[in-house]
Amino acid sequence: MTAEATPHEEVRVIDSRQEYFRAIDSIAEGTGPIAVDAERASGFRYSQRAYLIQMFRNDAGTFLFDPPAIGDFSDLNSAINQTEWVLHAASQDLNCLREVGLDPLQIFDTELGARLAGLPRVGLGTVVEELLGIHLAKEHSAADWSTRPLPESWLIYAALDVELLVDLRGEIAKLLLAQDKSEIAAQEFRATLEKEAKPAAAEPWRRLSGMHNLRDARAMAIARTLWEARDALAIETDTAAGRLLPDASIIAVSKNPPASRRDLAATREFTGRTSRSQLDRWWKALESGLAAQDLPEVRPHGEGIPPARVWSDKKPEADARLKRAKAEFAELSEKLSIPMENLLTPDLLRRISWEPPADLQELPTVLREGGARPWQIDLAVPAIRKAFVEAAQADTESAEQDS
Question: Model-level pTM?
Answer without folding.
Answer: 0.91
